[in-house]
Amino acid sequence: MIVIGVLITPALYSWVNVAAFWDPYGNTQNVGVAVVNEDEGGTSDITGPIDVGGQMMDQLEQNDQLGWQFMDEDEAEDALKKGDVSASITVPASFSSDILSMFEGTYSQPTIQYQVNEKKSAISPKITDQGATTLDSTITSVFKETVSEAVTTELRDAGGSLGDRLSDAGDRTANAFDETAGTMASAQDEVARVQERLDGARPTIAATQDALRSVDATLGDATTALDQVQSIMTEVQEQVSSFSDAATSAYIEGTTALADGTASANAAISSVTGELERAGSGLDTATREASGVVRQADQAISQLQTLLDNAAVTPGISGPLKDTLNELQERNTTNQELLDDLSGLQGNASDTVSSVNAAADALAAATSDTRDRAQGLRTSVSDSLPALNSAINQVNSTAGAFSSALSSQRTLLGESITLLDGVDRQIGTSQDVLGSFRNDLSGIEDGLKTARADVLALSAASGDGILGTVSNLDSVGISEFMATPAEVESHAVYPVANYGSGMAGLFTNLSLWIGAFMLMVIFRTEVDTARLKKLTVAQAYRGRFILLAVLSTCQGVVVSVGNLVIGVQTVNPVAFIATCVAIGLCYLSIVYALISALGNIGRVIAVVLAFLQIPGASGMYPIEMTPDFFQALHPILPLTYGIDALRETIGGFYGNHYWKAMGTLLVMAVLSFVLGTLLRRGLSNVKGMVNRQHAASGLIVNDQVEVVGSSYRLTDVIHAMRDRDAFRNEIDNRWKPLRENYPTLLRAAIITGVVGIVILCVLARIYTDEKAVIFGLVCLWCLLIIGVIAALEYIKQSFAHVQELSDLSEEQLQEAADTQSARPKTYSLDGDNA
Questions:
Q1: CATH: 2.60.40, 2.40.240, 3.50.4, 1.20.920. Which one for 164-460?
Q2: CATH class of the domain at 29-159
């Protein structure tokens, strides 16, 4: 019975939902919509009286797309709030008048009040929205039909008197054409006269241009002359300025040199006259003293001569003495001559002093005269140069003004010449245009004459056929055509008979996923190895999968056959059943790998994948309509390819789409099977730790985990056997930091996780368009925090488990060593073996 329940229960999910959604849009007539008509109607000259609201009510009574309920405003509001109806539509009193206002030039937008109760259902507002759109189309159709019928009737009624009016109109038109043709002839003559005047103006313009060019050349020469005058005046001003500077500098330098030279001369003359006066005074004194000495010497010589003459000495003695006295006399005579010369020199010195003083006086007079003349010259230069500079500046300013004026005049002349060129060209263009216009007038005149003849011929012809057609217009047929001028023909490329068949792909895949999950819940994933001690992990994994695969195949057959029985469409029933079986086996491989490797954690992941795949696998809505988060998940979800493959068997095959979907799903299943085998061995201790925690709680049901070989590492076992105390101390030292900090690390991980979730929730409130992405980040963040906490717990349990080695007996240690070294790949019950 349990096996039968496991086979049928998942299929019930598909059957019930497919049957419930078999044709929901075929029952929209049960969706209540309140309709309130307050329209008072309206009238216009074109349409006459019209009541759009009343006509709309008449058409809605014949419409069974929705459950239209006609009531007043209060009843509609009450029914909408209570949920008796899903929406209400109110036609205001001025609705028809607002529509007809466009014919009166005072257009007022007609509006219909539409209210919807979105709390009642998520789908019913969409359905009633479509009803409101249909109502809008109905209003447009009624309006077009009414206006078209009124216009057609007016044309038909006016057909009787149209002939007389056409005849009168023909005569008036012919006369008007005749008068217009005469006007065209007069216009041609006027255009010819204008052309003649324009031809006479062109030689005058050419002569004026030549005169202006001559004046421009003269002004150019004058401008050049003024530029030369300005250049010359600038040079003169520079030379005057240089002369003024040079004269002033020469005056200053000459005055300074004259003053310095006069001072130096006076000083030299004073020094010379002083020296001469002092020399004359000293010479006079020396002369007097020398004269006394000479006189005394002359007297002494005379006395010595007298003494020598009176002395009785021998000639030998007196001879030399006489010679000496003679020499002294000669020298004294020479000295006297010198004294005479000094006396003469003294007189000359006095004359020289007088001459020098006279020369000094003359020099002083000449210096004073030179200074006075230089001052006069400076005054003349100072008075004359500013006036000369002013005159030069005035000449420059006048020349510059004249030059600017001439430049302006030349600019005006150039513009005038250019303007005259443009006028000349414009006259030429105008001549061409006038010629063309004259030809056009001639053509118009001919055309008017031809049109006059045509109008007369038309008015003379019989219009009974046309008028008869207008009089026999079908106003009803024309109004109906104008109301709906075109229709849309729909063709389904891959027709699906009903909505239930369209949704069967999603519900069947979910049933198969749920079925695979139920197999993991009802049947153990662990193999009982009580009598199979040499069974390997891969053998046990494959053996249990084969058993579950048989049941999964039965599930696929049951759900697919049941779908066919209740009427689900398929283009190939065999392919439909085979696809369901294959998809079920692929889902079994994925779910079995998750639960075998991770236990209860794998069960949680399988459930999370189930509800992520409902929107992410594009089962109900196109994936382009879902948020970016689910669009990113879409290519990696198994249901994406399972639904695509099953839809191919329901709606029809195209190319190799079916094989692409099934191939991708098969790759996922094979990878899951291989990873499941490997991870079952590698994560057995982790799974055992989690199950021991569950067992310790006394509330959670869990499998007894089969582990590979001994649960202890061979190196730890050998270390414990060699030195039990050293091993115990080493493990205690390695475990101590974690044991002391474990509560702090655990609280930090939990607080970090909560803070991260709070931050992401705040961001979701701020960035409302990114809620799906933020939801995905919350899921990833929770998985990360759970992984950190699980890692901390696993490390803690591992240390505690390894520490148990120090308490084992020698026999138990030896058995663990033998198991790890001899049978590393065989199973042993967790807790039975070391």
A1: 1.20.920
A2: alpha beta
